[in-house]
Amino acid sequence: MSGFSPLDFRLMAMSQFQILTLLCQTAAWTISNNLNQFLAQQMVTSQAVSREVFEAQVVALVEQMQTTTIANVKYIDQLVSLIIFNSGLMSALNTNSYFIYSTSSSNYYITHGGYLVSNYIDTDPYSPNYTYCECVVTSNCTYQAGYYRYSYRSFYAIAYMPYTPPMFIVPGMLVGCLPHDSMLQSTLECFYNRSCLDLIGISQAITPLNATAPSQFRVNTTVNTLFEQLFVETWQNSSNFTRYYNACHPEACSYTYTQRGNFLYAMTMLLSLIGGLTTVLGILVPLLVKFICGLLIKCRGNAVPTIENDPAGR
Ligand SMILES: *[C@@H]1O[C@H](CO)[C@@H](O)[C@H](O)[C@H]1NC(C)=O
Ligand SMILES: *[C@@H]1O[C@H](CO)[C@@H](O)[C@H](O)[C@H]1NC(C)=O
Ligand SMILES: *[C@@H]1O[C@H](CO)[C@@H](O)[C@H](O)[C@H]1NC(C)=O
Ligand SMILES: *[C@@H]1O[C@H](CO)[C@@H](O)[C@H](O)[C@H]1NC(C)=O
Ligand SMILES: *[C@@H]1O[C@H](CO)[C@@H](O)[C@H](O)[C@H]1NC(C)=O
Ligand SMILES: *[C@@H]1O[C@H](CO)[C@@H](O)[C@H](O)[C@H]1NC(C)=O
Ligand SMILES: *[C@@H]1O[C@H](CO)[C@@H](O)[C@H](O)[C@H]1NC(C)=O
């Protein structure tokens, strides 16, 4: 166990950087894995689709791949944290819980870590305004990391207290119950600043990050946000419709042609309709007239004998 107190950056830094490396590796590994899986997929269509539909489909597929990749990584990370938290594992750094030997009862018992919430600079730890975050309740309690001369926890105090003022604060870095949870809530602010890197003893050979370089991530972006984006600045996708079409090898091609009718077209249609109607009626009407006349004559012919039926018998 190190001689630094639980609030000291020097205690947790090593583990936190290991966690950061692990998060990067996990992101890179997951992306390459999912990309290989994605590229092994085949796009099946019963008919060759148009360029627009093809491109829209590709964009949708890429988007789906991205979201599932991100969701899977987050899910696994949360699962592992939850398992660690609920198993009550004791960090070797003594930050989330530790054994205490009580001389009065000559017995060991477990004490859980606690951290002051948000008021990093306050000098009066006994102020009633302090709120505490306890590692037994949640694993994401944090406190501003720095070089503290000394920090302590009295027998009755709930949280670790810094002996203030600290030698210096490491901007953006947080310490807490577990290196994983505090690293996710930290930002990489210090790594944009040479004088900050000097303060924490990072070699001159390491060039600081460039804060003015175009990036979707700000200086104050948390590691959690970086990780949720899998440390990816931009995703680029490209598709080749020509190659899709050639691979699809359609056997037949047909198209329909739609056009708005114009005035001349409408007039032609109307006239030809009238002409056609005239011809058809010219044939049909005489036939109809003949038929009706025939019907009338037949009716009259039938009526004649009843009239001639004379009751006088002549
Ligand atoms: C893929 O690229 C197209 C154009 O290049 C872009 O409009 C689309 O948003 C990109 N899709 C994804 C998921 O990045
Ligand atoms: C506690 O907070 C109240 C209101 O926010 C303030 O008036 C008071 O001075 C604070 N006490 C201490 C000891 O800081
Ligand atoms: C800490 O964890 C609790 C639940 O365990 C959650 O509600 C809260 O939002 C978390 N806080 C941060 C800063 O992640
Ligand atoms: C760089 O870090 C030093 C030491 O932490 C700090 O005093 C200074 O304000 C920082 N500069 C910028 C531009 O953030
Ligand atoms: C930081 O990025 C900006 C914009 O890309 C560039 O002009 C500048 O030279 C970079 N600075 C360093 C120190 O690399
Ligand atoms: C990060 O910095 C930008 C300005 O550089 C600011 O608008 C934003 O609110 C900050 N975000 C956080 C979470 O502090
Ligand atoms: C698409 O593929 C064809 C055939 O392989 C190739 O000739 C063409 O240059 C490619 N187009 C693009 C934009 O890559």
TrEMBL record:
Keywords of this entry: Membrane, Signal, Transmembrane, Transmembrane helix
Transmembrane segments: 263-289
Domain of life where this protein originates: Eukaryota
Name of the protein this chain belongs to: Uncharacterized protein
Signal sequence region: 1-28
